[in-house]
Design the sequence.
């Protein structure tokens, strides 16, 4: 088999049918497959960036990668970048919504999640969190959950309006 020995693996995804996708901290995407019990490289793509977060949309075949200057979306079928969202602050976390848009978290002063469509920011953003966002999750029903470093969980509707708040 093969071992990532030069950099830390940031994400690992099961693509089905014996294929696995990895992304390391330096932006190297590798797809592997099992052949007669041996893990072999199918393809390798170097995004040439430092990875902060990643999220796979397996149904669409897109890998979103957050980095210090924004986020990129890699089309796994064509091995090309199909979106490149530049932001003023690092993208610390991200997730896909059911409409194919990305929600990006910026902790560098902004402390909210913002929606990005194919053309860029849509203008939708969650409520600002006092202590910054430690985790973002978009649920299957479209609700957006943001958890803060101080234990507060905000639940937003799919239009980013605040629905409820839980205190930890």
Sequence:
């Amino acid at each position: 088999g093969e071992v990532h020995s030069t950099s830390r693996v940031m994400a690992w995804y099961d693509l089905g049918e014996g294929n696995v996708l990895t992304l390391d901290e330096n932006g190297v995407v590798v797809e592997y497959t099992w052949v007669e019990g041996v893990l072999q490289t199918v393809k390798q793509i170097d995004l040439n960036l430092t990875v902060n977060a990643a999220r796979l949309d397996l149904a669409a075949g897109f890998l979103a990668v957050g980095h210090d200057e924004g986020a990129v979306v890699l089309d796994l079928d064509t091995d090309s970048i199909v979106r490149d969202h530049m932001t003023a602050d690092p993208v610390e976390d991200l997730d896909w919504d059911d409409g194919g848009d990305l929600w990006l978290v910026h902790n560098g002063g902004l402390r909210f999640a913002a929606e990005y469509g194919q053309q860029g920011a849509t203008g939708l953003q969650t409520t600002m969190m006092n202590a910054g966002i430690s985790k973002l999750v978009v649920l299957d029903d479209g609700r957006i959950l943001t958890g803060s470093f101080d234990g507060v969980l905000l639940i937003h509707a799919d239009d980013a309006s605040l629905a409820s708040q839980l205190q930890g």
User: Anything to note?
Assistant: The chain has no helices and 16 strands. The first strand starts at residue 9 and ends at 16. The two ends are 44 Å apart (CA to CA).
